[in-house]
Structure formats: C-alpha cells, structure tokens
Amino acid sequence: MCFKYQDEEFFAEGVSLKKLAQEVGTPFYCYSSDKLTRNFQSYQQALKEFNSTVCYSVKANPNLGVLSTLARQGCGADVVSAGEMYVALKAGVPADKIVFSGVGKTQEELTQAIKNQILQINAESVAEVETINRIAIDLGLKANVALRVNPDVDALTHVKITTGKKENKFGVDWDDALPLYRAAARMPGIRLVGIAVHIGSQLLDLQPFRFAFTKIAQMVRTLEQEGIVLDNIDLGGGLGINYNVELPPTCEAYAAVVRETLGDLNKHIIVEPGRSIVGNMGILVTRVLYTKQMGEKNFIIVDAGMNDLVRPAMYDAWHTILPVQRRGVAPIIADVVGPICESGDVFAKDRIIEPVQQGELLAIMCAGAYGAAMSSIYNFRPLVPEVMVHGDNFCVVRRRTSYEEMLSGHCVPQWL
User: Per the CB 3.0–4.6 Å rule, which of 60, 116, 240, 267 could disulfide with 274?
Assistant: First the structure.
C-alpha cells in the first residue's frame, strides 16, 4: 500500500506525513507516484491485446508532475481546454496522443488543436464540425475529427456526472450522427478518423458500458457500409473507484467488455480514464484547528475548506478521513468541517472517527481526482501545495500561492 500506517503514524510511501506537514504547512495535497504509475499500468496491461492508447483525462488532475509521470510511461492525454492541451504538451505528451473533448471549444482552442495536429478532436455538434472545417481550410490543413455521439444510455451514477443521456448537453444526438458523418465526409478541411462516446463518471456497473459500446459497434458497421471507414474508437472514461464501500470493476473486466463488443472490428481503441488513475493516488492533509461540542453534536474544525476540496459540498461525496497519528482510543461521532463561511463547508457529517485534538493532523483519502483540479481562492484563501512522493523522496510540484500572486492580476480603477 502506498498510504499506510507505520508504528501508528501515517506515511505516504516512505515519507512521514507529519514531517511533510512541518515542511510545507497545511493543508496540502500529497500524491503517490508509485500508485499513480501502477494505476496507469493496470489499464495498459488489461488492454495489451488491442491496438490501444490510454489517454489520461487531464481534468481530473492537471498537475505538471502528475502529467509528466504519466507521459514518461507512454500515456496520452484527453483534454477539454487549450490550457489542458498546453500542460499536456509541456509534460511531454506527444500531440499524436492527445484527444480534445468538450462541448464548447472556442475557435482559438480549435485553431491550436488543428495546428498541433493532435490525434483527434471529438466534435459534439453540427456547428462545431462546420467551424472546424472552416478553420482547417483557412490554415491549409486537415483536422483529425471524431464525432462524439450520445447513445442515450443511463450510466447509473450521480446525476451531476452522467453524460450519455439525451437530456445531457454532451455529444451528437444518436439519430443525427449518421447524417453528420455523411456531411463531414464531404468537407475539405475534415479528416474523419473516429467515433467517440463517454457516458459518465464513477461507474460501478459494466452493463452501461456494454450497452453503449454495442451501439457504437453498430454505428461503425453502418458507416463502413457507406464507405466511411474510421481508424479510432474512443470509449471515454468513467470507471469508478472505492471511496467507501464501493466495489468497482477491474480493468481486466472492463477490457473483457471491450473485447466482447468491439473486438472483431480491428480498430485503434482509445480510453480516457481520469479518476481511476489519480483518485486513490492522492490525499488531502489538514490540521485540526479546534474541536467543540454544541449539545450532543461534536465538531472537528480543520484548516482545509470546501475551496480546497469541493466534492463533499458539490456531490455529497464520501471521503474516508483518518488520523495521521493513531492513538487507539474509542471513536466518537462528529462532523468534520472547514473554516469557510458556508454551511455546506462540511467534509463529513455524523462520521464515526477517532477523536483528535487541536493541532493534530487528518488525512482525507482518495482526493487525487477533482480535488486540487477544482479548488479555488474563495474567501481569498491561497491555493494549497501539491506534493509528490517517490519512495523516501518528495517534491513540492505546486507551491502554495501567496497573497501577492493572488492580487497580481487585480488593479484599482484609475478614478480612485
């Protein structure tokens, strides 16, 4: 295990979290490079029978250290902004391993993608395909394009992270996909290279994947009957992780569904895992500011806030919370809350937890995905450090921002 107790003290690989807290202050994110690498290799190994590319979903955690670690393992990138494309290239991901997804790409972003000749742009509307065509013609280039289709499949996950149903904003409507492929095949600035689907996040059941991939296989066969032959099938991401008591499918079980539904098509398979690569490689370490009782209610007030980790406030998400120093005393029931002036600034409600004292440390587990990536400076709180450990070594891969840096883009209007 990459996060474990040694003599009742919590370690990240070979690094003491207590010592890290002394070095960098709290709160801070801590990432295990070993767990990150092994999570990626699980996909690579499971999909080795296919011509495949694992394109890590950068939105889950865009840290340069994380991306550089994955790039050196041969990983590609799935990006949803020009900024993510920039950091992926900076980390060493080759352009021909980058997929650009997202329902609202700007003309400037599309221009950069076409100039970089990335693996494919996943277009999500008629208007976007027409825009890509026009930009590519102006540049004297052909854009590598796939259509992201919406298969109207319920991912059986949280309503805010499902993306493959008709009422979601994502993708081309299933009934409109074939006519758009026909139209795009005639556009001089478009090179049709693939088809893409992504039905949601934190999936714990393989059946929705099976339904979606079966529909994609049918579409590919129909397109080939019309002479539109695609190289790539992009299956998106979405495989869940264990936050509490979940039993997510293995990469091997996922690969078996790919084999069952798409194995006879002999296509280049692209997968876009995010959470399942970085979720459990990261934790958020926070210090107890105060404890208090209000009637029978216990509160543990910590220095991390919802601006640092918004998932519990946004999704009612569960994160296991562990003391960095175990003392083996009887647990209590308490709310773990932050300092933000919002009632929603709560990491855990009515949690059974070992009591902790002022100044002690807590580790909020499985915070590597959509933790630092979704953090903000709400309440004018600095972005916290991100630290990567490798064996007995550690590196601050993003330092804490200063107030001066936070104000650097501000100015007082000239009339004051």
Answer: 60
Q: How far apart are CA 329 and CA 151, in angstroms?
A: 52
Per the rule left: phi > 0, alpha: psi between -120 and 50, beta: everything else, 140 is: left
Cα Dmax for the chain: 72
Residues in the chain: 416
Catalytic residues: 341
Distance CA 13, CA 390 (A): 7
Number of C-beta neighbours around residue 139 at 10 A? 13
The string of DSSP codes covering 267-301 is: -EEEE---HHHHGGGEEEEEEEEEEEEETTEEEEE
Q: Map tokens 């979704």 to a residue.
A: 374
Average pLDDT over residues 91-120: 97
Matching residue, tokens 């209000």: 294
Both tokens of residue 413? 């209007």
pLDDT-derived band of residue 201, with 50, 70 and 90 as boundaries?
Answer: confident
**Residue 27: is the preceding peptide bond cis (ω within 30°)?**
yes
CA 105 to chain centre: 18
Instruction: For strands 386-390 and 28-32, give the pairing.
Output: parallel
Q: Hey, what domains does the chain have and what are their CATH numbers?
A: 3-31+279-407 (2.40.37.10), 33-276 (3.20.20.10)
Given this model, what pLDDT does residue 170 score? 72
Burial of 273 (0-12, 13-18, 19+ CB in 10 A): buried
Give CA–CA dist 184/180, Å, rounded: 6
Q: Which strand (E) or helix (H) includes residue 53?
A: strand 52-57
Residue 109 phi/psi, 5-degree rounding, is -65, -40
